[in-house]
What does this fold into?
Amino acid sequence: AIRLNGVTDLIMTKADVLTGMDEIKVVERYRLPDGSTTDEPPYRLDTDLGLELKAIPGWHEDITKHKQGDPVPAALTSYVNYLEGALGTQLSYLSVGPGREQILKLR
It folds into this structure.
């Protein structure tokens, strides 16, 4: 969808919900029933898929009180960098809580 629609920026919401996780597992590839793999989500999800997961370190620091300019945990920065690389699009905003004032501009 990012490539098809020409998306140039993304917003990451719910970063606060991930706080407290030792690691965050992300799907890097899908293993199809024939044994082949793909990094694109299959069109049909009713088949027997295997998942190749990557574990990314999580963070335990409370980020809900962060304000613009406050440094976020290094592990969160690493996660954002991973997402940007995997998606090929920059994350420009990061939500660290439910309030409007909890949306941080990254770029």
About this structure: The longest helix spans residues 74-87. DSSP finds two helices and six strands in the chain. The radius of gyration is 16 Å. The chain has a mean pLDDT of 92.
